[in-house]
Design brief:
Oligomer: heterodimer
Distance between the termini of chain A: 45 Å
CATH superfamily of the largest domain in chain B: Nitrogenase molybdenum iron protein domain
Largest sheet of chain B: 5 strands, parallel
Strand content of chain B: 5-15%
CATH superfamily of one domain in chain A: Nitrogenase molybdenum iron protein domain
Structural class of chain B: alpha/beta
Number of helices of chain B: 18
CATH architecture of the largest domain in chain B: 3-Layer(aba) Sandwich
Helix content of chain A: 40-55%
Number of strands of chain A: 13
CATH class of one domain in chain A: Alpha Beta
CATH architecture of one domain in chain A: 3-Layer(aba) Sandwich
Shape of chain A: globular
Chain lengths: 483, 439
């Protein structure tokens, strides 16, 4: 089996930027002119590595085992994701809920000197013997990379010894300062180790590349819409079987519920198997969902049906949307999320009637370029603050003090800190709720209204808790440490 | 330390970052790759009883996020810049720099960078906690030793009733916060001021500065913390008492208090008076539940198995055998104790009571554990372990209670299992689990 090279890191493939800040107008202008350079933070808080996101992408694939070729710490993602793995099985109606199968090769000091090949081999054999899975996913690590274990070669040789399909994700944390590379590493693994061959095209089949953070209720909503266009959704890679992954080669088109996540996979399916793909960022918000549906429909020759469906959906949700808009009118919201969600939520501010005070976007690159320009074109958003940051809650703490938003809409890395600053919060995704599509926007609006109705938790928390920053920090320029 | 592991139940030495998070107003600075701090927070502190980020933990942990640049050219300059920034941005009384695999593998001279700041009067120390060196328990010790060696100063005088407590490891033990508070309360009951050093209201650097002034150090654990006590004895001449059983329930807690009382030369009347009161409370409730234990006997599990670190495995075994009259199956100790401790532990399990003994297997490979349990033939065993063991318990038709990392089926606040009340909590939780299977 040929040796597979690692996927290109996002900094070089897409010029992804993780440090930048300013008004929406200014940032959009610099982006347009190609001036957003790769800046560094001279002071930073710990971010997340690509290995984590690579595991996040493959963990829930059915009938598989994961091996983390690293000291045991890197496998700490295992128990983290296992709970979501189980929840996902429950909501998909599985009766035999099972743990994900996690192994660590447990590299020790001695292995850093002598190499970890023996351990990797022993672990692969143990994994096959214990579970006879369809696939064994192997993840590399900073340590395996620095000590120079030739993992691609090792895996290639090991494949001759085992029946299970070995799938290698080369995702050493230190190789990319942009964690999105981890998604690409996993899809690169699927493309090179799982999808064997082209298939006859099924004209009604579409791939829907979807991250773990898009929950089952979201899938159900999108499926509802696609079925009305007589399209069958092949949701990949989460909870998919190996056959489901291979079946992506038979689709008429690929779309993604998050283009940031699925960009590499979609492009490669086009390049390798001539399957066209959509470029809409995320079906989050009415306008975005319209565009998402239309793009997919145009690619599969059902544009007219889609237009009729969109009109019907608009009419159906209009009254409830108007009610929500009235309740959210004039509320100032700060959004903190991955680039796709952050831009999508910021863009649907008009639909729900709230004002965008600012947004933290975890990364910036060409995938969201159009979305950012669209945001900058909205009168209400031009003065909003854009903070491109791979989290960095210290910058946000400073921004929130200045901007004093009424509501903080974010993901699982920062809501606690905003609440401790006294701001009520709403999550931008939740495995158990609906955010995407037309019903999703209504559900999201309702959650925002409810959070504002009773902010007592955040208010009480702020009375008894202070954030760990010096007072002087709040007087500084929040982007002071970006150079 | 050399086998592959399925279903990890502890993490790497850099997990010591959580030990820093547990010290009030201390600021951890992690010099490592971009993923370590966040992953360890997730594994040790969030998807483990949902303990939360703490003050300067979670995504607020200061980190150098070392990437290709730092690996090829070295990360010392980056570290210097990040420390400078931390001093300006973070509000803290003690800064602890921990190095991960990347920094230690590429040979960054972190100690020198940190000493530059220390020479300027900054309260900062450095712990070399590369993940490949060992597990969370090691990381915890390394962090504490760093503070002892690089920050603490000798005390002018000994504070006669002050005792430093070295026991459960913050965050790794999901119930560490409640446990340490309970230990403090127990020792206060016999007239000692316990310096618990970690957790809410533990005193921060003011408390740590008192460490050298303690009358003695108490190592309340089978083996974790012994290195710390030796270090303190060497540096400050402080004697220590090693009580190798984590006391759960009346029998062991009374035994523990008597041992401490004897060592600290506390008048026996003081100790006995407190013990009497506590035992009366404990046995009142044990008696109250007697009708349930005796008449609902068909609910009592056949055998109990613990799959946990040495604190809980031994502590729970002693409690269930000697106070509830249960019978032990094989016990699994997962914290990889050193050889001499394994010998001692094996002896202790062999003599849980004069008539009852248990076999013990030292392993943290979930697959190996599952295989042994499946082949054991126990009927309806009570499995006290981790969230990983839920499926196994179901498979063998047994009951399941989570007590050790990872715990993803419970929200843990200040619950404690140590002591008299800890025993009552454990009984309640065991039977909540047993009864829930019949609802």
């Amino acid at each position: 089996m040929p040796i597979v090279k690692p996927v290109e890191i996002r900094e070089s493939r897409l010029g992804t930027v993780i440090a930048c800040g300013g008004s929406c107008q200014d940032v959009a202008k610099e982006a347009r002119q190609g001036c957003l350079k790769r800046a560094e933070r001279t002071f930073s808080q710990a971010t997340v590595c690509q290995e984590w996101y690579s595991m996040f992408t493959l963990l829930t694939v059915q009938n598989s085992v994961a091996i983390v070729h690293a000291p045991v710490g890197c496998a700490s993602s295992g128990s983290t994701m296992n709970i979501f793995n189980r929840m996902g099985q429950v909501v998909r109606g599985e009766t035999r809920i099972r743990n994900a199968h996690w192994f660590s090769t447990n590299l020790t000091e001695s292995d850093t000197i002598h190499g970890g090949e023996d351990k990797l081999r022993a672990t692969v054999l143990a994994a096959e013997e214990r579970y006879h899975p369809e696939a064994i996913f192997i993840f590399t690590s900073c340590v395996s990379g620095i000590i120079g274990d030739p993992v691609a070669e090792i895996v290639s040789r090991l494949q001759d010894e085992v029946k299970t399909r070995l799938v290698l994700s080369q995702c050493e944390g230190f190789r990319s300062s942009v964690w999105l590379t981890g998604f690409d590493a996993s899809f690169h693994a699927i493309l090179n180790y799982v999808i064997d061959a082209p298939r006859k095209t099924d004209p009604n089949l579409v791939n829907v590349v979807s991250p773990l953070t898009v929950g089952r209720l979201d899938e159900i909503e999108l499926d509802r819409l696609l079925k009305q266009l007589n399209l069958e959704a092949n949701f990949v890679p989460c909870y998919a079987s190996l056959e489901g992954l291979r079946r992506t080669a038979a689709a008429a088109a690929t779309t993604a519920t998050c283009l940031t996540y699925g960009d590499y996979f979609a492009r490669e399916l086009t390049r390798r198997y001539q399957i066209p793909h959509t470029r809409e960022l995320m079906p989050l918000g009415v306008e975005s969902t319209d565009r998402w549906l239309l793009q997919l429909a145009e690619l599969t020759g059902r544009g007219d049906q889609a237009r009729k469906l969109i009109e019907a959906e608009h009419a159906r949700i209009a009254p409830r949307l108007a009610e929500l808009k009235a309740q959210l009118k004039g509320k100032r919201v700060f959004v903190s999320a991955g680039q796709a969600r952050a831009l999508s939520i910021s863009n649907f501010a008009d639909e729900l009637g709230f004002e965008l005070a600012g947004t933290t976007i975890y990364q910036y690159d060409e995938v969201i370029a159009e979305s950012l320009q669209r945001l900058a074109g909205r009168r209400g958003a031009q003065a909003a603050t854009i903070n491109v940051a791979n989290v960095q809650p210290f910058e946000q703490a400073n921004l929130l003090r200045r901007l004093k938003p009424d509501l903080y809409v974010a993901d699982e890395m920062t809501t606690g800190f905003a609440a401790r600053a006294g701001i009520p919060t709403v999550m931008i995704y939740d495995y158990g709720m609906n955010y995407l599509g037309y019903n999703g926007l209504i559900a999201t609006g309702e959650r925002m209204v409810n959070a504002l109705k009773n902010p007592s938790f955040a208010v009480k928390l702020a009375r008894h808790r202070r954030l760990p920053y010096r007072e002087e920090w709040y007087q500084q320029d929040p982007f002071k440490y970006i150079e | 330390m050399s086998t592959t592991i399925e279903q990890p139940r502890q993490f790497c030495a850099l997990g010591g970052q959580q030990t820093v998070v547990a010290i009030e107003r201390a600021i951890p600075i992690v010099h490592s790759g971009p993923g370590c701090a966040n992953k360890l927070f997730g594994g040790l502190a969030f998807f483990n009883g949902f303990q939360g980020s703490g003050r300067a933990g979670g995504n607020a942990i200061v980190g150098t996020n070392s990437c290709e640049q730092e690996v090829i050219f070295g990360g010392e300059n980056r570290l210097r810049g990040v420390i400078e920034g931390a001093l300006k941005v973070m509000d803290g009384d003690l800064f602890v720099v921990l190095t991960g695999c990347t920094a230690d593998l590429v040979g960054d001279d972190t100690a020198t960078v940190v000493s530059e700041f220390r020479d300027r009067g900054v309260p900062i120390v450095h712990a070399s906690t590369a993940g490949f060196k060992g597990y969370t328990y090691l990381g915890h010790e390394l962090v504490v030793k760093a503070i002892i060696d690089q920050y603490l100063q000798p005390a002018p005088a000994v504070i006669p009733n002050l005792v430093n407590v070295w026991s459960v490891v913050p965050y790794q033990d999901t119930f560490w916060a409640g446990n340490l508070e309970a230990i403090r309360e127990l020792l206060a009951g016999i007239g000692l001021e316990a310096n618990i050093l970690f957790g809410h209201d533990s005193g921060g650097t003011a408390a740590w500065n008192k460490v050298p002034a303690a009358a003695f150090n108490l190592v309340l654990s089978p083996w974790t913390g012994l290195g710390i006590a030796h270090c303190l004895e060497e540096r400050f001449g402080t004697p220590f008492l090693h009580h190798p059983v984590f006391p759960i329930g009346a029998v062991e807690t009374s035994r523990f208090l008597r041992a401490v009382g004897e060592f600290a030369k506390i008048p026996p009347a003081v100790v006995e008076s407190y013990i009497q009161k506590q035992e009366a409370h404990f046995y009142h409730y044990l008696d109250r539940a007697a009708d349930f234990f005796l008449e609902m006997r068909w609910d009592l599990p056949g055998r109990f198995l613990t799959i946990a670190d040495s604190f809980y495995s031994l502590g729970i075994s002693l409690f269930l055998v000697n106070e509830l009259g249960l019978l032990p199956g094989r016990q699994f100790v997962t914290d990889e104790p050193p050889e001499d401790c394994r010998t001692a532990l094996t002896k202790q399990f062999a003599a849980l009571s004069p008539d009852v003994s248990a076999e013990v297997t030292f392993t943290h490979d979930g697959g190996e554990i599952a295989e042994l349990v499946r082949n054991s033939g126990y009927e309806q065993p009570l499995i006290i372990g981790t969230s990983w063991d839920h499926d196994l318990a179901k498979e063998v038709g047994g009951y399941h209670l989570t007590i050790a990392l990872p715990i993803t089926d419970r929200l843990v606040m200040d619950r404690a299992y140590v002591g008299y009340r800890g025993g009552l909590r454990l009984i309640e939780d065991i039977y909540a689990s047993v009864l829930s299977t019949y609802q």
